[in-house]
Amino acid sequence: MSDEAGRALDLGAFRAAYGRFLTDDRVLLTGHSHQAWPDVARAAMIEAFDDAARLVDDKWYRAVFPKMESVGRRILGRLGFDEGDAISFGKSTHELVTRLLSCFPLASGPRVVTTRSEFHSLHRQLSRLAEDGLRVTWVDTADRESLVDRFLEAIVPGTSLVALSAVLFEDAFVVPRIGEIVARAVEVGAVPLVDAYHGFNVVPIAWGPAKDTLFVTAGGYKYAQMGEGICFLRFPATTNLRPADTGWFADFSALDGERAETVGYGPGGARFSGATFDATPVYRADAVLQHWDRFGLDVPALRAISLRQTRRILAKLDEAGIAEHVASSRVDERRGAFVAVRSPGAGRVVDRLRARGIFVDSRGDLVRIGPAPYLTDDEIDHGTLAVAEEIRREVASS
């Protein structure tokens, strides 16, 4: 049914919902970095201002918190969890993961198992903490065939936290056997953390039978089209972890009582909350989630559209004669929602394409071509062939 919704999408009507972003003079193949926002996101930002003007301090209980509850339920559903699970919000996944890491004092000798392909924020934070004594086991990802087996071997008794991405940010590799990894973490008494950011709202993930034990973080900046400042952490409601990095929203309901000597944590998603935040991203998220529902685009439908588009990109790259430069998997189940192509001077390729009105991005020597559901096939073809042309030019001059 969801796949049918994707095939039956009225592309004209859908594109009309992005009037501020979609213009005739550019092609946005930035689907993995900054997707277009639907126009309802702009209206939501104005609504946030108007609610603040109308309600002042009362906005929190009368408008913001109810929206957060609704947004949280729908995000959990799109992640593949029960809509009643615990979820905390933050302006970035770094904020939320740092709060989780603060549950493991360095003096206790914690050990983290992770990969060499985690996104910059986690890699940087773990590297910095390692300077102060955090024990980190870095699992190399170059051999993708043996990655999971080697990762499982690294999860030994005494491990405090297991952290990995469900989709690797460099080339869209979808990590298999997530459920097996989670089960192994639980078996040795470690906290399992999955970074789902690079697949949220477009790549369904099989969490496995131990899914209730999972900590999962992601955000709305990429495939969810919610913009900045709306990230989240799903965690087991029964956890007794005590973040040392904790703000007053973590026990908001206790503010009117006497201050206790021991720091407490509120129910539900409060435990990993911070302090006062900009509520505008919550309004955007609420409006964009309604937008997805309005067009019948749940995660399976968006996945169907994405797979069709990435297959088209791969075919065009083959047609253009640069098949050997493709870094992303050609197996649907192992490919996320973009296609990465190796090129010398990838940054220069991006700059020249930008001058031609083709928007892509790069990481290291990889040019990332990111489609999105609002793109036409002609735009995808035009943009992909332009990428191939610039890569051939760069290869010839190197």
UniProtKB/TrEMBL annotation:
Keywords: Hydrolase, Pyridine nucleotide biosynthesis, Pyridoxal phosphate
Protein name: Kynureninase
Lineage, top ranks: Bacteria, Pseudomonadati, Myxococcota, Polyangia, Polyangiales
